[in-house]
Design goal:
This protein is of the alpha/beta class. The chain is built from nine helices and eight strands. The strands form two sheets. It has a five-stranded parallel beta sheet, sandwiched between helices. Strands 6-5-7 form a three-stranded antiparallel beta sheet. β5 and β6 form a beta hairpin. The structure holds adenosine monophosphate.
């Protein structure tokens, strides 16, 4: 299955993505994770992306398009893939269409997680990432058990530079200006499905799972409702 997960920062894409890949057994392709890895490894691309990411603005299209194009060629993507955080602009979506058509592939579903801005600010600013394994917790909704991570490390959690409140607000503005137009783009292609992103991760995942099961039985067809 070939899926795109879209939504504002903090809509729960990462959490849902982890469950989704376990359900449909395809790799997750997260441009945010790939860029963070490149940054950590100190590669040329990582250094170039760093200043954009820390300001909460989008990395130039050509950088992420190149990353995704390379990644999609890997053999683990043969049975399908789930794109998380890409495309983020209509230009990226058009480039993706070009890449996929060269590979004679096409997107089955675009799942848009919808969450109001005020909920997002609360969700993101409480997010804490384990310094060792990268697992994400939330100080209110999903605190680490006894202040230690499940990977065994104790109390070493950090706030991502782009999860600070002023940066979150900037990222939301960018989402509304540059990423939200993707809804119309994919609606026209009849692959868009809006998923209510409010509620617990289990409740949201249940909505996704039910939709995928129904569309599977019905042989595809999604809509924007
Ligand atoms: P994420 O973890 O998906 O929220 O991404 C973190 C940051 O990486 C974003 O705020 C952008 O600076 C950059 N980024 C990730 N994916 C993309 C993309 N598709 N296009 C441009 N920038 C991206």
């Amino acid at each position: 299955m070939e899926i795109i997960l879209v939504g504002p920062p903090g809509a729960g894409k990462g959490t849902q993505a982890q469950r989704l890949i376990a359900l449909i057994a395809v790799p997750q392709i997260s441009t945010g994770d790939m860029l963070r890895e490149a940054k950590k490894a100190g590669t040329k691309l990582g250094l170039e992306a760093k200043s954009y990411m820390e300001r909460g603005v989008l990395v130039p299209d050509e950088i992420v398009i190149g990353l995704v194009e390379e990644r999609l060629k890997a053999s683990d993507c043969n049975p399908g893939y789930m794109l998380d955080g890409f495309p983020r602009t209509v230009a990226q979506a058009m480039a993706l269409d070009g890449i996929l058509s060269k590979m004679q592939r096409k997107i089955d579903h675009v799942l848009l997680l919808e969450v109001p801005d005020e909920v997002i600010v609360e969700r993101i600013t409480g997010r804490r990432t384990c310094k060792h394994c990268g697992k994400i917790y939330h100080i209110k909704f999903d605190p680490p058990p006894q202040e230690s991570c499940e990977c065994g490390s104790k109390g070493e959690f950090m706030v991502r530079a782009d999860d600070k409140e002023d940066v979150v607000k900037e990222r939301l503005k960018i989402y509304h200006d540059q990423t939200a137009p993707l809804a119309k783009y994919y609606q026209k292609k009849s692959v868009l499905r809006v998923i209510d992103g409010l509620g617990s991760p289990d409740q949201v995942f249940d909505r996704i799972r039910k939709f995928l099961m129904t569309s599977d039985r019905e042989g595809g067809g999604s809509d924007e409702s």
